[in-house]
Amino acid sequence: MAEATLGEIAAHLGGELIGDPTLRITRISPLESATPSSISFLSNVKYQSRLASSQAGCVIVGPAMREAAVARGAALVTPDPYLGFARLTQWWAAKTRPIVAAGVHPSALVEPGALVAASASVGPFVVIESGATIGEEAVLGAHCFVGHGASVGRATRFAPRVTFSHGCHIGDRGVLHSGVVIGADGFGFAASPGGAVKIEQLGGVRIGHDVEIGANTCIDRGALDDTVIEDGVKLDNLIQIGHNVRIGAHTAVQGCAGVAGSTTIGSRCIIGGASIMLGHLTIADGVIITPGSAVTRSIRQPGTYSGIFPIDDNASWEKNAATLRNLHTLRDRVRALEKKTSGP
Amino acid sequence: MAEATLGEIAAHLGGELIGDPTLRITRISPLESATPSSISFLSNVKYQSRLASSQAGCVIVGPAMREAAVARGAALVTPDPYLGFARLTQWWAAKTRPIVAAGVHPSALVEPGALVAASASVGPFVVIESGATIGEEAVLGAHCFVGHGASVGRATRFAPRVTFSHGCHIGDRGVLHSGVVIGADGFGFAASPGGAVKIEQLGGVRIGHDVEIGANTCIDRGALDDTVIEDGVKLDNLIQIGHNVRIGAHTAVQGCAGVAGSTTIGSRCIIGGASIMLGHLTIADGVIITPGSAVTRSIRQPGTYSGIFPIDDNASWEKNAATLRNLHTLRDRVRALEKKTSGP
Amino acid sequence: MAEATLGEIAAHLGGELIGDPTLRITRISPLESATPSSISFLSNVKYQSRLASSQAGCVIVGPAMREAAVARGAALVTPDPYLGFARLTQWWAAKTRPIVAAGVHPSALVEPGALVAASASVGPFVVIESGATIGEEAVLGAHCFVGHGASVGRATRFAPRVTFSHGCHIGDRGVLHSGVVIGADGFGFAASPGGAVKIEQLGGVRIGHDVEIGANTCIDRGALDDTVIEDGVKLDNLIQIGHNVRIGAHTAVQGCAGVAGSTTIGSRCIIGGASIMLGHLTIADGVIITPGSAVTRSIRQPGTYSGIFPIDDNASWEKNAATLRNLHTLRDRVRALEKKTSGP
After folding, report:
1. Mean pLDDT score of chain B, rounded to an integer?
2. What is the pLDDT along chain B (344 residues), one digit of tens a residue?
3. How many CB atoms lie within 10 A of CB A8?
4. Got the DSSP string for A202-264?
5. Taking CB atoms and an 8 Å limit, are A338 and B337 in contact across chains?
6. Of A145, A157, B301, C41, whose CB is crowded by the most CB atoms within 10 A?
């Protein structure tokens, strides 16, 4: 278990520390489960009521919460407590996680003609094919696969069991979680009398810097040109990105979403979980899609867009759904009534 | 192929056997495809009509179906024929499947400081990191990965290619299918002027006893505290469980469902396939969610809840969907009509 | 980089070449990003406007577009330009991709009693269990797993990291992408006072010829009989196919779809992305399901079927959704109005 004093934490994060700098902190905790040796945080004024009752040894708060925090014990006051919390988790993780040693595990298979930087770490049973390049400080977990001519940037980390196929590229400081598949074939066939004829997918996948990709997420290679994921994009788990999609910088996509081929998503969008986008659409910068919505047309203006059937108890839903099946006739009946009552 | 006599089966399952105990059974079959050397079962009176025409050598039935079953041939009468069938499949599987030998395959990599019980079986190319513990009679299929400090309980079986990350724990008699990823990072970032800052995920995943997890399903580690899956939970394939979710005992989740972070689901719920739950919700015990529904608010009462757009032929759907887009104006028009016709 | 002359391409594809047969082509490109050394194609008259402005060295077109294509430069005229393009990608891929050498990689584990054809290629760290059969010219990428008694047909290719479990079978010329899991247990339990009792899944998965299965897609083994995927079926990524499903020949299923157990889908259907099908349904041949639809009943007639809540800006959606929650009372109000105004 890690340990740090409040003083060390304050020195790392900056901000004003009110309280005993020698207090030993052994955990970062949410307000509700915090103990006197925990440091916690309050980022949303909505949860202010949890502050007074928390057992936390210290709470990171914004200036507006300074007094309320000090009233209950030690406090670290920073302009953006959630950002402070994020930085604290990074510092904590660096202190507590096992150090990954540089070098290629003896069981790994690095084909001749592949280039692995000296400071990179290649885990057991990894396969790196010829022509691939692994950057400085990159980490490939156990059972990863990097195909012919693919490249992995500096300090990019692959969890165990990532498939990164031939001719795909990722920049620096990326994080790919287990089960990710980059560069499987896009879904493309031409009809013929003898059945579907496969369109070989000749493009690749180009991923920028600071991209994170969640477990079991798939990004298909382009048919001719590349599928493109720009800098700072964050993809959650179990997402499907079709061929020739482009996702703009700093867009976040939540879990279980699917984006069909050749759709272009702008930058700084938030695509809700389990939402889907048809192919060949264009989505503007700054669009927010509510989870579970089906995007069936291009969206040209920033804003929030939704399309979810509201959940209800089953009996009510059944009655409403039955009426919905005949909604256009209901509209016709209203029209008829309007006509009837508008008479002289 | 396995073989057993009716008498052996009856001795194993209990119940009343009407028919020749020396009859040789070589298969368990559905009523429709059964042959005279099959044993079949009828658990739902709804399918009673299939009984008379079945070629099965013997049929497992409940007391109410005793006469109908005997009228056509041999029968095994038990209070709960579906449960009897389930137990029969277990007996059959134990008879027919290759025995998994205890021991660590020579190609597996067990780091110093990992503890593998003597009766456990560790398959080829498995990686077990230091500090991990593998219980008695546990089975890890080929290409599995168990991270630092993780623990796998007694008689828990991992199919080939399961990722079980550092600091995650599972109890006894669990079954994890291929492609499962336990303990990938939850999806958490803090906004900053320079782009999203990763919140390192410092919690783990704690899984109880008798839990089954389907192929390619993902359970993320908690941000600070653990993600928790209680005893007897059954998860189907391709499910996403976000960080700090808690799933209550004996709840079943069908395939392709997604549960966003910090949601708490009660015990003995049934969460329908491809349904989604937003984050930070609370779902009571005994809730049933219809497949394809989006749960956007907490549910405090047991019962069945639904929210699916009814499927229809495309032309009808288009007309209804077009009207739905202006549903609130239709309501306003009805209001206006009501006002108009309520006058003196 | 590959290179071919227009003459070589025309000789391979057939059709009428108008233009210089010695022109060197180094890429196949979409019309928009084509350069003078690209060959491109126009398959849909809708995109005709892109033709004139394209920089492509040559364009594959149908007879109707002959004049328009010739007006701008070289053209290859074929009856079905999209099919011609598909065949060209295959020819190009064969020219440019590394040749996969026959033979078993020394790091692979082939158990005694497994049969691997001499012309098959088995990659590093592959595991093939006893009783399995790998056909001529089959390719198993790195980290693949083939279980006891499974069989892989002639010229079928597994990308790295495919799990193909015991007792499953696939025909010839199949393509399975990374992360695919064939033959995990179907989701079946019988209730008992002590909790759910697992129904061991004793069936297998039978897959026909010319089947393609996308990344991280799962097909569960049957409970008693087999799950069946007929010839020519194409499955995209992240699809869930439950136990005892049958998918008819030449049906295509788009990404993120889910099909629950025991549903039978006809042949030449198109099942839209992220759509779901409940279990025990029957879907006729030639049915098209719009992406995102929930199929909750059997469909007996070919045609297109839809069920999606239309997406809208959030404010409009909220108003419509709120009205939808009381839709049946709106209908009752219309009825009351009709009664009132129908009087004498």
Report:
1. 96
2. 579 999 999 999 999 999 999 999 999 999 999 999 999 999 888 888 899 999 999 999 999 999 999 999 999 999 999 999 999 999 999 998 888 999 999 999 999 999 999 999 999 999 999 999 999 999 999 999 999 999 999 999 999 999 999 999 999 999 999 999 999 999 999 999 989 999 999 999 999 999 999 999 999 999 999 999 999 999 999 999 999 999 999 999 999 999 999 999 999 999 999 999 999 999 999 999 999 999 999 999 999 999 999 999 999 999 999 999 999 999 999 999 999 888 65
3. 16
4. ---EEE-SS-EE-TT-EEEPPSSS-EEE-TT-EE-SS-EE-TT-EE-TT-EE-TT-EE-TT-E
5. yes
6. A145
As given in the structure block, the two tokens for residue C97 are: 């991709």
The residue of chain B nearest to residue A141, with distances taken between CA atoms, is B145
Query: For residues B226 and A144, what is the distance between their CA atoms, to the nearest angstrom?
Result: 27
Nearest chain A residue to B225, by CA: A29
Residue of A nearest to B307 (CA): A311
Q: CB burial class (10 A; 0-12, 13-18, 19+) of residue A71?
A: exposed
- DSSP characters for B109-171? EE-TT-EE-TT-EE-TT-EE-TT-EE-TT-EE-TT-EE-TT-EE-TT-EEPSS-EE-TT-EE-
Work out whether the CA dihedral B63, B64, B69, B70 comes out positive or negative.
positive
What does the DSSP 8-state code read for residue C299? B
Q: How far apart, in whole angstroms, are the C-alpha atoms of residue B200 and residue A87?
A: 9
Provide the sign of the torsion angle of the four alpha carbons C251, C256, C260, C261, taken in this order.
Answer: positive
Verify whether the Cβ–Cβ distance B294 to A312 is below 8 Å.
Answer: no
Q: What is the mean pLDDT of residues C76-91?
A: 97
Q: Tally the residues of chain A.
A: 344
Mention every residue, 6+ apart, whose C-beta is less than 8 A from residue A7: A17, A21, A22
CA distance A42 to B10: 63
Distance from CA of C218 to the nearest CA of A (A): 12
Q: What are phi and psi of A60, to 5 degrees?
A: -85, 125
Residue of C30, C161, C308 with shortest CB distance to A163: C161
Q: Rounded to two decimals, what is the model's pTM? A: 0.97
Residue A128 β-bridge partners: A110, A146
Q: Any catalytic annotation for residue A243?
A: yes
- Tell me the count of B-C CB pairs closer than 8 A: 231
Question: What is the value of ipTM here, to two decimals?
Answer: 0.96
**What does the domain layout of chain A look like in residue ranges?**
4-96, 314-344
- Identify the sign of the CA torsion A4, A8, A10, A11: negative
Residue type, B306: S
Q: What is the 3-state secondary structure (H, E, C) of C114-134?
A: CEECCCCEECCCCEECCCCEE
What class, spelled out in words, does domain A4-96 have in CATH?
alpha beta
- Which of B41, B50, B311 is the mutation pick for testing C, counting most C CBs within 10 A? B311
Residue B78, strand partner residues: none
Residues 6 or more apart from C53 whose CB is under 8 A from it? none
pLDDT in the model for residue B344: 56
Query: Cα dist. B212→B94, C180, C184, C203 in Å?
Result: 18, 19, 12, 19
Q: What is the CA radius of gyration of chain B?
A: 26
Which residues on adjacent β-strands are paired with residue B74?
B58
CA distance B89 to chain C (A): 5
> Are A34 and A40 within 8 A, CB to CB?
yes
pLDDT of C237 > 80? The answer is: yes
pLDDT in tens, B54-113: 999 999 999 999 999 999 999 999 999 999 999 999 999 999 888 899 999 999 999 999
What's the pLDDT tens digit per position in B120-130? Answer: 999 999 999 99
CA A9 – CA A77 distance, rounded (Å):
12
* Calpha distance B166→B184 (Å, rounded): 9
Q: Specify the residue for token string 């692959």.
A: A158
